[in-house]
Amino acid sequence: MIRALLPHPLLALGLFATWLLLSGSISAGDVLLALVAALAIPQVMRGLEPDRSGVRSPGAVLRLASYFAVDVVRSNYAVATIILGRRKRQRVSGFIHVPLDLGNRYGLAVLAIIVTSTPGTLWVQYDRPSGRLLLHVLDLVEEQDWIDLIKGRYERLLLEIFP
Amino acid sequence: MTASAVLYWGLGAAQAILLLAMLLAAWRMMRGPRAQDRVLGLDTLYLNAMLLILVQGMRSGVGLYFEAALIIGMLGFTATVALAKFLMRGEVIE
Amino acid sequence: MTPSDLPLWAAWTIVAVVVFGSLLALTGSVGLVVLKRFYERVHAPTLGATLGMASIVVASAMFWSMTEGRLALQDLLIGIFLTVTTPVTMILLARAAVYRDRVEGDDDVPPE
Question: In the record, which residues are listed under signal peptide (chain C) (predicted)?
Answer without folding.
Answer: none
